[in-house]
Amino acid sequence: MSEREYEALRSALASTRMEGFEVTEQTEKDCMRLMNGEISAADMVKEILARPAKAV
Asked: I need a surface site. Which of 20, 36, 44, 56 has the fewest CB within 10 A?
C-alpha cells in the first residue's frame, strides 16, 4: 500500500468516526488487508461473522 493510499484510508476512517461509528484497530487492520489484496471481501465477511460477538 502506498503512502497516498494509507492516508486516504486514514481519512476515510476518521470520517467514519466523525459520523459516530466505532472504528477499532481491528477495523483498520481488516481494511488494510483488503486494500493490499491479502484477502477477498467474501473471505473477510466470513472471518468477521466467525468472530465472537462483542458484549454491549
From this structure: 56
